[in-house]
Write a structure and sequence with these properties.
This protein has helices at residues 15-26, 41-53, 74-78, 87-97, 107-130, 151-170, and strands spanning 4-9, 30-34, 59-62, 81-85, 134-140, 173-178, 181-184. With 186 residues, the chain is an alpha/beta fold. The protein has a single domain, classed as Rossmann fold. Strands 3-2-4-5-1-6-7 form a seven-stranded mixed beta sheet, with helices on both faces. The two termini are 18 Å apart. Catalyzes ATP-dependent phosphorylation of adenosylcobinamide and addition of GMP to adenosylcobinamide phosphate. One of its GO terms (molecular function) is cobinamide phosphate guanylyltransferase activity.
């Protein structure tokens, strides 16, 4: 049966590096699920650095939703372990896919967006467990930072915090990475 492992920590804490190393102990055939979209030059540069750091034999899926489509992909079928990096970027993408003005939208609209995000996560984890695949997910710990001064930042922080709690509950193992040092917390 597949295992779900969550890796969390602050920005530039070493989460992705630890998660990549963690795959070596649990999988033989690794695939990477990249959730970032190249929306500007800085993000394009970050994506390229992440690509360069990955082992060459790993297949990369560039997606942040619609994971049921993986069932038809031979790379999915032949992989036993998946590293998704990262949940918080996935949340951002799903939030911005909505046609919402986050400065003025209702609480009900925000709750629907969060429910949509949870649905995507449930679909991904359900798929991996059903197919007996291992899944390592990287996410940012958003609770240590400053309280955002604007509504969108608060909405994002609140959704990401609740999603991380939910994901930790569903995970078999959870690691917090601080200054490159992983600490197993579950």
């Amino acid at each position: 049966m597949g295992k779900v492992i969550m890796v969390t920590g602050g920005a530039r804490s070493g989460k992705s590096t630890f998660a990549e190393k963690k795959t070596n102990g649990i999988g033989q055939s690794i695939s990477y699920i990249a959730t970032a979209k190249a929306i500007d030059k800085d993000m394009s540069d970050r994506i390229e650095k992440h690509k360069a750091s990955r082992p060459k034999g790993w297949h990369t899926f560039e997606m942040y939703q619609g994971f049921d489509h993986l069932l038809k992909d031979p790379h999915f079928i032949n992989s036993d372990t998946f590293l998704l990096d990262c949940i918080t970027i996935m949340i951002t993408n799903i939030m911005f896919d909505q046609d919402l003005d986050y400065d003025t939208c209702s609480l009900e609209a925000i709750e629907k967006v969060e429910a949509d995000i949870i649905k995507v996560i449930n679909g991904l984890i359900g798929l991996m467990k059903e197919q007996e695949k291992n899944l390592i997910v990287v996410t940012n710990e958003v609770g240590y930072g400053l309280v955002p001064a604007y509504r969108l930042g608060n909405i994002f922080r609140d959704i990401a915090g609740r999603v991380n709690q939910y994901l930790a509950e569903l995970s078999d193992e959870v690691y917090l990475v601080v200054s490159g040092i992983p600490v197993k917390i579950k």
